[in-house]
Amino acid sequence: MSLASLAGVDVRFGAQTVLHGVDFDITRGEIVTIVGPNGSGKSTLLRVLIGAQHPSAGQVRLMAGLRIGYVPQRLHIDPTLPLTVRRFLDLPQRIPQDLAIEALDRAGAGSLGARQMADLSGGQFQRVLLARAILSKPDLLILDEPTQGLDQPGSAAFYRRIAEVRAELGCAVLMVSHELHVVMAASDRVICLNGHVCCAGHPEQVASAPEYRALFGSGTQGALALYRHEHAHGHDHDHDHPHGHGSEAAQ
Q1: Which residues are 141's β-sheet partners?
Q2: If DSSP codes are grouped into helix, strand and coil, which group holds residue 119?
Q3: Of the candidates 61, 98, 105, 238, which lies 20 to 30 Å from 232 by C-alpha distance?
Q4: What are the DSSP calls for 139-166, one per residue?
């Protein structure tokens, strides 16, 4: 059953067409990744799905009562503001302690409740954002560039956590990322976007598609194969760089 679908969606800002004729659907339990160059409309597509952007043409269909959890591309928190992780989860309304503990544990952030948000590393910060997004036990979890600032092993660890959340909640996961070989290896289906859907399918299908290779280069297919080999050995460490509050990220 489709949780959300787009049919023939266009998005225009004045004379600029950002998305044209986009068809998209996602069903419960699958992990779908959207890849594409800067300015290809990836974040705009997510905004259409969550209702923050109305399409200029086409239709958006959401399952009745659909619960969406959202991890944004960036979130600025004033580093001088005294705000613990547990208090952050209580904004804008208080969350029962048992639900907060469950979400933090599920996101791999169970030991961080008393920590100050400003003191978290990049990986810890993203896990707290993930915990907040899954508090409502969403049917659809949407993540926009969730691993910026993390190195490749740190990114891989975060994506493994996402797969565990998917399995535990039975939700669908929709991600946008620039980390082609890492995120594609964690996906059931990949959609290559460049204002329109260039190609879509299983990661290996997309990595070998002429449209994909024209955008990202022929070396990306080999990078995907290399990552799959390295990933088979596993990485248990949460490698990341210190969280840069308010840092700018490419669309």
Answers
A1: 69, 173
A2: helix
A3: 105
A4: SEEEEESTTTT--HHHHHHHHHHHHHHH
Q: In what order do the strands lie in the sheet with 2-13?
A: 16-27, 2-13, 57-62
Mean pLDDT for 152-171 is 90
Determine contact, residues 176/143, Cβ cutoff 8 Å.
yes
Q: From CA 104, how far away is CA 127, in angstroms rounded?
A: 8
Inside any domain, residue 246? no
Residue 191 lies in a domain: yes
Residue span of the structural domain in which 161 resides: 2-75+140-231
Residue 15 maps to a domain: yes
Total number of domains in the chain: 1
Give 167's contacts (C-beta < 8 A, 6+ positions apart).
Answer: none
For tokens 């969350």, name the residue: 95
Q: Does residue 87 lie in a domain region?
A: no
**What b/e string do you get for 27-41 counting C-beta neighbours within 10 Å, with b at 16 or more?**
beebbbbbbbeeebb
pLDDT at residue 140 is higher than 50? yes
Strand 2-13 versus strand 16-27 pairing type:
antiparallel
In order of 12, 86, 116, 147, 221, the CA distances from 108 in angstroms are 39, 14, 17, 15, 31
CB distance 71 to 143 below 8 Å: yes
Alpha-carbon torsion (225, 238, 243, 82), positive or negative: positive
3-state secondary structure of 233: coil
pTM of the predicted protein model: 0.84
The pLDDT assigned to 177 comes to 84
